[in-house]
Write a structure and sequence with these properties.
Layout: E1 25-30, H1 39-53, E2 57-62, E3 73-76, H2 94-112, E4 116-120, H3 121-135, E5 139-143, H4 147-153, H5 164-177, E6 180-183, H6 186-194, E7 203-205, H7 221-230, E8 238-243, H8 252-263, E9 269-274, H9 279-288, E10 295-299, H10 306-311, E11 315-318, H11 329-335, E12 340-343, H12 346-352, E13 357-359, H13 364-375, H14 378-395, H15 398-413
Parallel strand pairs: 1-2, 1-4, 2-3, 4-5, 5-6, 6-7, 8-9, 8-11, 9-10, 11-12, 12-13
Length: 414
């Protein structure tokens, strides 16, 4: 825990009228190894930062592992001796982690006396629902994708297997049990209403946003050149950059195949891939494809260092295959003013709009075509990059998102 909150501290009485907003005590439940430098962790962190900036007091209950952050109140579970680590994605060991997380959250409820529970992911929402019933306080569920779809993406569940139906029913019950649902995309709203039967009036759109000050193109060209030299990127090559998790459902295999197609007939593109896990697995695959000289794996990149890595890129790529999860990396690309190629999914269209290039989902050949199309058109790269930066400034500020969340708290607490 990096900063404690005493239960005896008092807050002003909450009154909400017009545009007046007053702070709340918030218990966040994050069934993951917070903080790690990817995806949903960034949303949890930035929501916490803006809520505290707006006066709330946020306590985050999470797993034993993860990186502590200054000025964030993190309450961790105890460790379990047979599993000291936790990998990204679905795992049978999550059952034990979640039991411990329930106990840790129960303790935090006594200590902080929250006025609202803000739960992330379905496991967090299930824990939060039990606690919300015990304490008779509202539960806000931050929906970041379908539980069963994620389990299928990770190869942990088969849609034709015997466990799919009960898991689908459990997911439906969790979705419907929350007092209010926050979600990051219009596509997710359609998913919740059409597939899981949630009432539309209980769903609030809070898009993933981006720290516009942190994610801005570096004007220090000497720093960019230093990083190119550090990663042995030849000076004459344009850089296609990716930053995120390294996994098949993220499209890394498809990206490497596209790199093979491109490098078979041209030498002016280089692929800079930042992120984890499975770095050695994909580095070995790149070597087998004969593209080791055209691909650099930067490994795990701290969130604070992400803008520096992205500043090296000329073109960004998001080959994510999942149809239901968000794609927060796209917002970083937007804010950096990087012209972007993505697979054709509803989520990527929602973020990029008419300013992205879209390849057929899962098609490495079409992905290669789109990347080459941008590489060969410098004026279009400049125009798309500027348009995406403006889009980030106009639509994806955390200041706006924070006020939407506060309004949601006020409505459920009333």
């Amino acid at each position: 825990m990096t900063r404690g909150i005493e239960a005896t501290e008092s807050l002003p009485e909450n009154r909400h009228s017009g545009t007046e907003r007053t702070p709340y005590r918030v218990l966040m439940i994050a069934p993951t190894s917070f903080f790690a430098d990817y995806g949903c962790h960034v949303r949890i962190l930035e929501e916490t930062r803006i809520l505290e900036k707006l006066g709330c007091r946020v306590t985050i209950c999470t797993y034993h592992n993860g990186r502590d952050l200054p000025e964030v109140d993190i309450r961790r579970t105890i460790n379990i001796p047979w599993r000291s680590d936790y990998e990204v994605g679905s795992s049978r060991h999550k059952i034990a982690f979640d039991v411990l997380l329930f106990l840790r959250s129960l303790s935090a409820m006594w200590q902080t006396k929250p006025q609202v529970i803000h739960a992330h992911l379905h496991e967090g929402a299930l824990i939060g629902y039990i606690l919300s019933r015990l304490w008779r306080i509202p539960l806000v569920f931050d929906f970041q994708g379908s539980l069963t779809s994620e389990m299928i993406d990770h190869g942990f569940l088969s849609p034709k297997g015997p466990f799919y139906a009960p898991m689908y029913r459990l997911e439906t019950l969790i979705d419907r049990a929350a007092t209010r649902i926050l979600t990051s995309s219009s596509h997710a709203i359609d998913l919740l209403t059409d597939k899981f039967g949630c009432r539309k009036e209980k769903i609030t759109l809070v898009p993933d946003c981006v720290n516009l000050d942190a994610f801005a193109r570096s004007r220090d060209q000497s720093a960019v050149m230093h990083l190119r030299q550090k990663w042995s990127i030849p000076p004459h090559r344009m850089v296609v950059v990716y930053l995120g998790l390294l996994a098949e459902y993220q499209g890394i295999g498809a990206l490497l195949n596209a790199a093979r197609i491109i490098s078979s007939h041209r030498e002016d593109l280089h692929f800079l891939i930042g992120g984890y896990p499975n770095v050695d697995v994909y580095r070995e695959r790149a070597a087998k494809l004969g593209i080791a000289d055209y691909v650099t794996f930067a490994g795990k990149i701290c969130y604070e260092d992400a803008p520096r890595l992205l500043s090296v890129g000329d073109i960004a790529v998001c080959p994510k295959l999942s149809k239901t999860e968000g794609a927060g990396k796209l917002l970083n690309y937007l804010s950096m003013g990087l012209p972007t190629v993505a697979f054709d999914t509803a989520v990527s269209h929602e973020y990029l709009g008419e300013h992205g290039l879209y390849a057929l989902r899962g098609d490495s050949t079409d992905l290669a075509r789109c990347l080459e199309e941008l590489a060969d058109d410098p004026q279009r790269r400049i125009e798309l990059g500027a348009s995406l930066r403006r889009r980030a400034e106009e639509r994806y500020s955390w200041e706006v998102a924070g006020r939407i969340i506060l309004d949601t708290y006020a409505s459920v607490i009333r």
